[in-house]
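Quick one from the shared queue. A colleague (R.T.) flagged BTB domain-containing protein as missing a structural entry in our internal table.

Convert sequence to structure tokens.
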Amino acid sequence: MSEADDRYTPVYSPPSPKMYDNDTVNNNDTIVLFEGGDVIIKACSEDAVREFLVSSEVLGRTSNVFSSFLDLPRTKAGGESRRLPWIRPITEDPDSVEIILRVLHGQLDYVPTGFDFDSLGKLEHAANTLGCVDKMSLVVAYGLRTINVNELDLAMTTKYAAIAMRFNLAELFRTVTKHCAQRFVNPLVHVWTLGAGNLKTIALAIQLQQSSVKYAIHAAVTALISSCKSECGCLYTLGSQGNATLLENLQTFYHSPLTVAYTELLFFVKYAESSCLFTCEEHLWDTFMECSLSRSRDQAVQSLEAALELCKGLCLECIKKDSKDAGTCSGAH
């Protein structure tokens, strides 16, 4: 998963189906999750088959797939008592199936701490097959209970924020995004090196409407304004996707301190032939203008004047042109 990814998308293909003997079961190989259970889940991977003895009543209360087991007769046709539990084969990763089944039976301590991100796809797929995907929030929350955000790098912070969003873990999301925002106070972290995925996480942090988070990011962006004046780098080096991603998420925050700082950063960026405001696409310029004009008219004019001065006197119409002869502006516009 690359650093630019802004959403966690589980990828898991279940193993090929295998044939089962549904009338016999080797009880010595069965993992008993519920004493006196009346259902055996047989989970199959490409190289293993594991059996779990579970309770139909527990499954019926938590799973829409197994609720019908509660209505099944307890005896075979002809009145003969059933000697063995009903068997339900599924083609899923056995380890993932065991975690989900243990959670359903209240055995939360079995959930491993810390997640291999690839394993989340298998867990979610198994939960879906078992008819209890709504339990994934509990599984993920418990599995991430020992996470230390201070040990996360920027890429991992982004991934955890996306996972928290996916599974509706509000507290984890607040913790991770606040940590992410505070990291940007360091002026050595240059906004244009972050990539679209990390910009998305910053924008999500803003949406929490927590002043401490918003002002932390505001401080970071403000700190970068001065460095932009002395370097030839530009926010445009994020690419249109990176800029658009952040700006789209800021459109409802025109009056926030962050939007003001970000707009100033865009207008005060140093002119360079290969990296300049005039290389920005038309729709980005419209967004820049809208952000700027949300402030007082005097502030907007000052920002534009400063931008024109830094751009060697080019007028706004020339700057907006994606043209290499913008540097020959005659001022006739």
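The CA atoms of residues 239 and 255 lie 25 Å apart.
The mean pLDDT is 61.
Added to the table.
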